[in-house]
Specification:
Layout: H1 3-14, H2 20-27, H3 31-43, E1 63-71, H4 76-84, E2 89-94, E3 101-107, H5 110-122, E4 126-133
Antiparallel strand pairs: 1-3, 1-4, 2-3
Helix pairs in contact: 2-3
């Protein structure tokens, strides 16, 4: 990673819809240079994809939770893969501490959350869950490069 790649990444994080020409103009580079570097970062997996930042609250998904999960008998990866398939789940993490995994999920209503937690507690090898309701989000975003 050199400064040029870092600058290109920082620009893409701010506006991933800009053309190579627009990025090049902003950074003082040739469009072909930007295109070549972006393609290489995509090829190597540094850039994994492009997304849209959706306001989930405005879509009605205003119940945002953190669920800690304790898993028995070395079945953590199996359980995490099963949890990750649920459409309400945004993130699943391995972690240290009292629990083995942490799940971030969003729901439209308490009923959806209730069904998810009850389903989770029926999975073989799930010993315990602890759910925290997120009241306010102070910062929601990725690490900015550059």
């Amino acid at each position: 990673m050199d400064r040029t790649n870092t600058d290109i990444l920082a620009h893409l994080q701010q506006n991933g819809r800009d053309s190579y020409r627009e990025i090049a103009k902003t950074l003082g580079l040739a469009p072909a240079t930007v295109m070549k570097r972006v393609k290489e970062m995509e090829r190597t997996g540094l850039i994994r994809g492009y997304t849209v930042d959706i306001d989930l609250d405005r879509l009605g998904y205003d119940i945002h939770v953190i669920v800690d999960v304790r898993v028995a008998k070395g079945k953590l990866q199996q359980i995490e893969k099963k949890i990750a398939k649920d459409r309400s789940v945004m993130m699943v993490f391995d972690n240290t501490g009292s629990f083995d995994a942490t799940v971030i999920a969003r729901f439209k209503n308490r009923g959806g959350l209730d069904r998810f937690i009850k389903k989770l507690q029926t999975y073989d090898f799930v010993e315990r869950t602890e759910t925290k309701l997120i009241l306010n989000t102070i910062k929601d975003g990725s690490l900015r490069v550059g």
